[in-house]
Amino acid sequence: MSTFYFIAFLSIFFSILVISAKNPVHSILYLVLTFFTFTIHYILLNAQFLAVVNFIVYMGAILVLFLYTLMLINLNKEAEPVKPFMVKISAVFGGGILAVALVSSLKSLGVSDPVVLKDPNLGLVKNLGKVLFNQFLLPFEISSVLLLSAMVGAVLLATKEKETKATI
Amino acid sequence: METIDLLIKIALIVIIFAISLVVAMYSTYAERKIAAFFQDRVGPNRAGPWGILQPLADGGKMFLKEEIIPTNATSFLFIVGPSLAILTACIGSAVIPWGQNLEIGGRVIPLQVTDINVGILYIFGVVSLGVYGIMIGGWASNNKYSLLGAIRAASQNISYEISMGLSIIALLMVTGTLSLGEIAKQQHGFWVDGYFSWNVFKQPLGFLLFIVCAFAETNRSPFDLPECETELVGGYHTEYSSMKLGFYLFAEYINMFISSAVMATLYFGGYNFPFMDMIHSPNLVAILGVVALFAKIFLFIFFFMWVRWTIPRFRYDQLMDLGWKTLIPLAIANIVLTGIVMTIFK
């Protein structure tokens, strides 16, 4: 249990650093660390497959692409857009209201009641596969269609438009 | 876990680390000798007999050189880069089964550090993490050539990871497990029930795809565009000197060793060798198995070097075309084909 609290502390610590870091590349690197702590959380829950997939997909692919884009656009202090004063004030106001709403919602929460899993090995590949392909087959297949449509959309956006012939 | 088991595990880890470092060290020597052979030269021959002490001399030189951190570099990340590169290169060896269980004095010693049931995915995760070392180092150098090298490395790794994953899926359909220990066990012997037991004979196309992707993931020629010296000075390690440069170069050789071990385990039977059932002492089989595995690994390392000194480097658009337009469709076709064949012969 103490491991959990330590890792949870690290997750929150790194995610605060993500938004407070001045340099965008640094904040992506803190995000990588945050995702790494999530991987450890999954391992603590004995969900090995989910842990490794989180590791490969989020840390190994998505965040590399984030980093890639940030390195290309070369953000620095001079290029940072200066927001007008009114926008800053309204942002502080909006953020404050959100904080009040979140804190007040905490009041209505009961003491957390941890559910003990019936099968502690649920997170292993074999069991997860059986559950996904028997019990949740339809949602699983529908989500694959969703991914396919996203892919088609990306291809559509990336293809060059046919050059219209210049009229002389 | 008992203390003695823990001690055995620690000893195993230390031995594997030492072996991978020594192999990586002597790979540099082998590479120079092989390059010399291919180009009809002599190669290093001054330090010790046949130049056998050359890697030690190189290592000593690396340690004693002046350390330079460029003024405009992000100094912390500049140091993190090579450290991460060597770390990710080393941790891949944890799930590889180096041999069958040894039995000494009634105690069974597994020659595998840990047999987690998602072993292949672990290797895959470590490989995908490897690109951070190069990217962070290249960006922190604050040099446009380094940055270009880092960006090339990132896009190359992501593109080839996809076809690597797809080629592994076809293999998983055949083996039905993600654990490397289990996969090595399934390929027992050489000829079982009228067919070869090694996976390369069941997945020839998958193996071809995997080895091409392994070349790309380890940034070896013909895919060494991140450090393409004709265009980018030295690529991502342009600004590095002393042992930090040494770590980057060393990480490449360790990666080569680990990926050779993975290929030998997944496709070439791991520690299994022909006629292993004719030897009746299990300990002897285990030791010969380790020897067989290392023989396969050295063959693969030789193959890596052979290709490097034979084939010229790709152009960048050719690299992307090969990855996205050739390897991925082939990998998907391989999955479909494997599925059809498995349904017919079930």
Q: How would you describe this protein?
A:
The complex is a heterodimer of chains A (168) and B (346). By secondary structure, chain A is mainly alpha-helical. Chain A is built from six helices and no strands. The N and C termini of chain A lie far apart (76 Å). The model of chain A has no long low-confidence stretch (mean pLDDT 82). Chain B has 346 residues and is mostly helical. The longest helix of chain B has 36 residues. Chain B is globular, with a radius of gyration of 21 Å. Chain B starts with a helix and ends with a helix. The model of chain B has no long low-confidence stretch (mean pLDDT 84). Classes of the chains: A mainly alpha (168), B mainly alpha (346). Chains A and B meet through helix 2 and helix 3 of A and helix 4 and helix 5 of B.
List the helices and strands and how they pair.
The complex is a heterodimer of chains A (168) and B (346).
Chain A: H1 2-20, H2 24-44, H3 48-73, H4 85-107, H5 125-135, H6 137-158
Helix pairs in contact in A: 1-2, 2-3
Chain B: H1 3-38, H2 54-64, H3 75-91, E1 102-104, E2 107-109, H4 119-140, H5 144-175, H6 180-186, E3 191-192, E4 195-196, H7 204-217, H8 229-232, H9 242-267, H10 282-308, H11 316-344
Antiparallel strand pairs in B: 1-2, 3-4
Short description, anyone?
By secondary structure, chain A is an all-alpha fold. Chain A has helices at residues 2-20, 24-44, 48-73, 85-107, 125-135, 137-158. In chain A, 73% of the residues lie in helices and 0% in strands.
Strand content of chain A: under 5%
According to DSSP, the number of beta strands of chain A is 0
Distance between the termini of chain B: 42 Å
CATH H-level superfamily title of the domain at 1-77 in chain A: NADH-ubiquinone/plastoquinone oxidoreductase chain 6, subunit NuoJ
Structural class of the helix and strand makeup of chain B? mainly alpha
**What is the C-level CATH assignment of the domain at 1-77 in chain A?**
Mainly Alpha
Number of helices of chain B: 11
Along the chain, the helix and strand elements of chain B come as HHHEEHHHEEHHHHH
Number of helices of chain A: 6
State the oligomer. Answer: heterodimer
